[in-house]
Amino acid sequence: MACRISELVIDAADPGRLAAFWSEVLGYVELDREDDGSIEIGPPEAGFGGPQPTLVLSPSNAPRAGKLPLHIDVSATDRDQEAELERLLALGAGRADVGQTGAENWYVLADPEGNEFCLLHARLRPVRPGAS
1 and 54 in one domain? Predict the structure, then answer.
């Protein structure tokens, strides 16, 4: 085995707002809060080093120049794609246009700070604590 992704760091104008959004999207909880304003969220009972990566929302006032070169893809675990789309929109996600044709089987969305992410068609089994 080589490496695993342990955490993803996202610059945020409002780390608290994004931490709340992504916690609801992923079923994560706050794990840590640093003096610099960074907030780490992750799976309950697993935390850092578990089977899923944590997210660190790091304060930044630097303007974003264009589309991010990396985005997050999510898949529903307990409902179909359409129901999950409605849940994500209700949480504050917005639809994003990155040049889709309309024939895709995924949705391109943006979090409350405009970071694009995709809701995939595939439904996945939830990760259970203690799984590796």
Answer: yes
